[in-house]
Model the fold of this input.
Amino acid sequence: MKRNFTLILLCVAAVLAGTSSLQAQMVKAALPGAQRGADLVTAVTGVSGHEATAGERGGCANLEAEVTEFWCIDLGDGLVPSVFITFTFDGACTVSELNVAIDGGAPQMLDVSGLELESGMTLLLYLVTEESTYDMTYILSDGTESDTFTYIDDGCGDDAIICDCANSEHTIGVTTWLGDGFEDNGQFAWDGNPVDFNCMNWGYDCGDFDVPESDPYAVCTGGLPPSNGCDISVQETVASTLVNVFPNPSNGLFTLANASVSGLLTYRVFDNAGRIVVMQSLSTSPGTSHMLSLQLAAGSYTLEVLADGLVQRERIIIE
Done:
C-alpha cells in the first residue's frame, strides 16, 4: 500500500505557508474513519463535552469559518471527501478543538491544540463519508466557541477526470501524488486503478524519478496537460524531423543538429530491452548542434527526441 506523505494527520501535522488561492497557511487533519490505510497515524479524538455558549465566550471574538470543497482523496481504501476550513477571529487565540457531527450524530472532538491554528489559517480536513451533512463548531484556546457552521458534501462524482501516461482515468485528486517521493509507474493504485505518471505529459512524476526535469505543461506547479491528459499523447505524436542525427553508425559520438526546436528538448536512449540508459534535457534553438557522447557497449539503440509535444525516434548504432 502506498503511504501518501502529503496526507499529514493530526499527530504529525505541520504548518505550511499557503500558496493556494486561499492565501492562508494550511495544516491537514482527518476525521476518524477516514484513515483507512494501516500505516496512517491515528488522530487524537474524543467526545465533545464543552458547553460554552455565546454569552460565556472569553477574550477572543467574532469567530467565523469558511468551508471550501476540495478534491476527494484516496487514503488507502477508496475515495473520501476533503474540505478546506479557514478560521477567522479577533484576538491572539489559537484553535483548540474542532467538533464535527455527521448526519445529526453525536459530535466528535478533534484536539487540534498542537497545530497552533491562528486566525487566517486553513485546515485541510479529510472527511469520512460522501453525501453527508457535517455540522461543525470550533473552540479557541481561551474557551470561546464558534456558532455552528454546516458543510453538505455532494459526493466525489463531480471531481474532474485526468488521464495518466497509460491513458487510465483517475479523479483529479490523484495529482496530489505528483512529487510525493514515490515512483508512480503502475505499482500504486488510486481508487483501485494503477497510476502511471512516468512521462513528459506529467513531468515524469515531478522529481519522483531520477531523470532530468521536463514539465512542458507545468503540472509540477499546479498546471494540467491539455484536456487533462485525456486527448493527447506525447509518446505517440510523431514528428519526422526534430533533429538530424549523424554520423550513424558511430563510435558513440553523435551530433544532434536541431532542425526545428525552440526551447526545451529532451532526448532518451533505450536499449533493446526497452530500458532508458541515457536521458538529458537541454535548451536549444533551430540551427544549433549538440554533441551526444554515449559511453555504451557496441550495439543498436533507440534514440527518442521529445520537444513541443512531439516525438522523433531514430535507430542508432554504436560500433
